[in-house]
Amino acid sequence: MMAAKVMAETEEQSRIRFQVELEFVQCLANPNYIHFLAQRGYLKEQTFVNYLRYLQYWREPEYARYLKYPMCLHFLELLQHEAFRRECVSAQVCKFMDDQAILLWQHYTRRRTRTLQPPDTPAPPAPPAAQQGPPRQQS
């Protein structure tokens, strides 16, 4: 019996695999892409589910720092559950996820903008009350 030759991954191959996996994980931030995968049956294939499990290493800070769309980690976590993978076939579920992601993004953006704004300067003092003429004498 001949021993299987296991070739070590070159530095170039490792770099390319990192880039491909980074791009794929970030695509998971898009609910429409998840819906596309579900419609095509990928989320039912055990090999694909195993691949999603393997990609959990992106949650580690040393890898997560490369992500531009951190929402992808939330969806990657949800994809670990069979019930969620089954529901992703529904267009209504996809639309709901998309709407919720947009709402979260808007809330985050507004909140971040408020946090980064300089503190409010004190309001200028109110102008003095308009003086009326001398008091009238009643006769």
TrEMBL record:
<feature type="region of interest" description="Disordered">
    <location>
        <begin position="114"/>
        <end position="139"/>
    </location>
</feature>
<comment type="subunit">
    <text>Component of the Mediator complex.</text>
</comment>
<dbReference type="Pfam" id="PF05669">
    <property type="entry name" value="Med31"/>
</dbReference>
<keyword id="KW-0010">Activator</keyword>
<keyword id="KW-0804">Transcription</keyword>
<dbReference type="InterPro" id="IPR038089">
    <property type="entry name" value="Med31_sf"/>
</dbReference>
<dbReference type="GO" id="GO:0016592">
    <property type="term" value="C:mediator complex"/>
</dbReference>
<dbReference type="GO" id="GO:0003712">
    <property type="term" value="F:transcription coregulator activity"/>
</dbReference>
<protein>
    <recommendedName>
        <fullName>Mediator of RNA polymerase II transcription subunit 31</fullName>
    </recommendedName>
</protein>
<keyword id="KW-0539">Nucleus</keyword>
<feature type="compositionally biased region" description="Pro residues">
    <location>
        <begin position="119"/>
        <end position="128"/>
    </location>
</feature>
<comment type="similarity">
    <text>Belongs to the Mediator complex subunit 31 family.</text>
</comment>
<dbReference type="GO" id="GO:0006355">
    <property type="term" value="P:regulation of DNA-templated transcription"/>
</dbReference>
<comment type="function">
    <text>Component of the Mediator complex, a coactivator involved in the regulated transcription of nearly all RNA polymerase II-dependent genes. Mediator functions as a bridge to convey information from gene-specific regulatory proteins to the basal RNA polymerase II transcription machinery. Mediator is recruited to promoters by direct interactions with regulatory proteins and serves as a scaffold for the assembly of a functional preinitiation complex with RNA polymerase II and the general transcription factors.</text>
</comment>
<dbReference type="InterPro" id="IPR008831">
    <property type="entry name" value="Mediator_Med31"/>
</dbReference>
<feature type="compositionally biased region" description="Low complexity">
    <location>
        <begin position="129"/>
        <end position="139"/>
    </location>
</feature>
<keyword id="KW-0805">Transcription regulation</keyword>
